[in-house]
Predict the structure.
Amino acid sequence: MSHATMTAVQAGVLCEFITRAFVAVDMPAADAASVAALMTEADLQGSDGHGVIRLAPYIRRIKAGGINLRPEIRVIEERAATALIDGDNGMGHLVMARAAQLAATKARTAGIGWVGSRLSNHAGPASLYARMALPQDMIGLYFAVGNANHLPPWGGLDMLLSTNPIAVAVPAGDEPPVVLDMATTVAAYGKVKAKAQRGEMMPEGWMIDRQGQPLLDPKRADEGFLLPIGGYKGYGLSLIVGLLAGTLNGAAMGRAVLDFNHDFETTTNTGQAIAMIDLAAFGDVAAFKQRVDTVVRDLRASERMPHVDRIWLPGEQSHAKRLAYARDGIPVGPALRRALDAVAAEIGIAPLA
């Protein structure tokens, strides 16, 4: 799809629309504003599979009673550097913002803070929370169990694992921070959803059908499964992330994972974990950032293969999008706008301006 068919919406306008939508379905105003800000931030950094595109399914789940709008988010296990949070089936954004805040507090004292969560929900892109470490002069790491299984064990057919994402954010000095945000599958399922909504086909290598043949039509995604990154290594990584973010926290993993694309009522018991490492625990903060800048510049300036215009660092393209979208507005395609108009009509609010 050409960008000519996109309309640009200012971040503040999008955030205000999302806030109004959540308030209309009885979410407390302060919580609605917090969730809307994080969803808008997802779209600002180009994570379009995790931003406002999720508004309709979130509201469907809220209306079906699948999310607790007045959760008691509380710490149920705690030591000096660790904690386990019970999200009480609240919005995942609220649970993980609380977890990130607590991880930073603990890291400030202990050098590292690791906070796990259970009874949470989908919270948007992984990098959103790893990046919360950056203004604190910390390294952030985030792990989660995906909200539907789309990956079998290597060589198998039973879908027992998810896209189980990992994000790591490392502060730099004059360079943009190094921010890795990746699913343990070749593509996150959110990208499949975004392709389906835009009427685009998937590239070969994202999914295969149950006979092992390439699956290219995202509207037929239920007929197959996602492929892990790096073959059996990606399967192993998905398993480990699931054990860290799910099993360790008493959250859903394996057969216990609910497919939230088809069941809007049952509690997902989503598991996530966030860790923060205080740079000051390892020496001079400014010197560390200078060393990161050196590594970044060495990589970027290294010799390129023919026809390669530039070497990118993880997070650089998202950083560029954040700057451009903050200035010019967030691109919204016609299919997404129609979906948002339908949501607005259904819950009785003014449409997105």
Summary: The chain has two domains: 1-63+323-353, 68-185+228-282+305-315. The longest helix spans residues 92-110. The mean pLDDT is 96. The chain is about 35% helix and 15% strand.
